Amino acid sequence: MDPKIAALSNFNKTDWDDQLPFVIFNYNTTIHSTTNQVPFKMIFGRNPMLPFDCQDQIVSLHQDPDYIQKLNDYLSSLTREVRDNIINNQAKYKTRYDSNRRNPSYEIGDLVLVKNIGSRYKFDIRFEGPFRIIHQQGPKTFVVEHVKKLTLRRQVTTDVIIPLYQRQPSRGLGS
């Protein structure tokens, strides 16, 4: 459940659907972090009029013959600006993601642990194994086989496996 909906809902969270219009309105009238624009403005070409905004007492309506062309030009420029913002932010997100991403390399025969995707509780086992890499299908895709249960094979990618290192027998002090 979205945190905004949860915050507005009652204690038992039974009226979340009643709160949905308020959350959608909030989303549509707030600057989006990726586009740096208000979604309402991107759709209608103007900022939304909120109940607490100051409004003129006298409303005058005049027909601008070039209104449609001006609106289309404005929306086109807004679309270009939003596209540029999205591309720039995607590059920033990628750089941030790549800076924290490890790029391990595996060989046939390496021992690995496989992430348990179905864990739901705090004390569930997070990794299963050990598995041995028996085949590489792509740059980041491998077939692994359980070391003890040889009929248990899986196709995995590098984002769900971690290397497993075997300890070398320690040598005595006199060796």
TrEMBL record:
One of its GO terms (molecular function) is nucleic acid binding. It comes from the Eukaryota. InterPro entries: Retrovirus_Pol_polyprotein, RNaseH_sf. This is Uncharacterized protein. The lineage of its organism: Eukaryota, Metazoa, Spiralia, Gnathifera, Rotifera.
